[in-house]
Amino acid sequence: MPADTTYGSRKEAAVAALAGAENRPGSPKPDAIVVVDGITRRFGGLTAVNVEHVEIQRGAITALIGPNGAGKTTFFNLLTGFDQPNEGEWSFNGTSLKGVPPHKVARMGMVRTFQLTKALSKLTVIENMRLGATGQKGESFFRALFPFLWSAQEKKNTERADELLARFKLDAKREDFAGEMSGGQRKLLEMARALMVGPEMVMLDEPMAGVNPALTQSLLGHIKDLREQGMTVLFVEHDMDMVRDISDWVIVMGQGQVIAEGPPDTVMSDPAVIDAYLGAHHDQALTDSGEAFTSEAPASGGTEDQA
Ligand SMILES: Nc1ncnc2c1ncn2[C@@H]1O[C@H](COP(=O)(O)OP(=O)(O)OP(=O)(O)O)[C@@H](O)[C@H]1O
């Protein structure tokens, strides 16, 4: 795993660009790729998301954190078209995404990863990759599975899939069922699959959940590589060590709202953020220094990766 200095150029650029941004909820960014205004999502009487204004800086790694039930996943789903808000506007590269279905959002350059579902676990690694090329659209599912229906485009997709599998060191697993892989390898596959559409922005859903510490550095390296290649990364994560390690900027949600924003160290010492976590996790141990954050993931399951 290369030292962090390998990632100097783009990281420094992202940190420098964000140095001028104010550390407060909804602060404007010098070069926002995503702008969100007044998004709300209610489930019956519960308001899961109520975000007044958020901007995501292009080319940076932004973490979205918050206690369980804060609305992070719902917010992810809204941005990528997998769920629709009750009210609100949001744009990607200046184009409104309101009402745009997920496969079109993906083709516009914004993809999100998904934890491997049961159905996808029963497909091989290469089949999963081919499905990634469909821009997360179900329609091409059968074509992706039956080579005799391939077009020249689909051959290109297979070449791209093989390149990505090699980059993520999953080429030896090409014909294995995805469900047979370790937790860490699944996370690598989720990321590789998202890259099939050549996105500008990648949204990662708990990239460290269920990953053995032995594979942690490799995964972190791949995420930093996305930034090095000029992509924007937004990720939801409970592992605060990881958030500290790779984020250029942190957005904190609490009860559906954005309650804090700023660089990792600033945000994690913000009393409002500590209160939000302690409020949601009365039983969470404080560290020796009195911080609310431990390296334990409060919500994620145990480590299952045996790689
Ligand atoms: N489809 C749904 N129907 C009803 N309530 C929902 C639905 N999806 C989410 N919620 C509720 O909305 C709130 C926000 O949930 P969400 O999963 O977005 O939070 P989160 O911050 O991602 O939590 P976690 O860290 O535990 O994954 C929770 O109270 C949840 O129970």
TrEMBL record:
Q: Give the superkingdom in one word.
A: Bacteria
**What Pfam families does this protein's entry cite?**
ABC_tran, BCA_ABC_TP_C
Does the entry feature the keyword ATP-binding, yes or no?
Answer: yes
Keyword Transmembrane helix carried by entry: no
Q: Name one GO molecular function term.
A: ATP binding
Record's keyword terms, sorted: ATP-binding, Nucleotide-binding, Transport
Protein name in UniProt: ABC transporter ATP-binding protein
Specify the species.
Longivirga aurantiaca
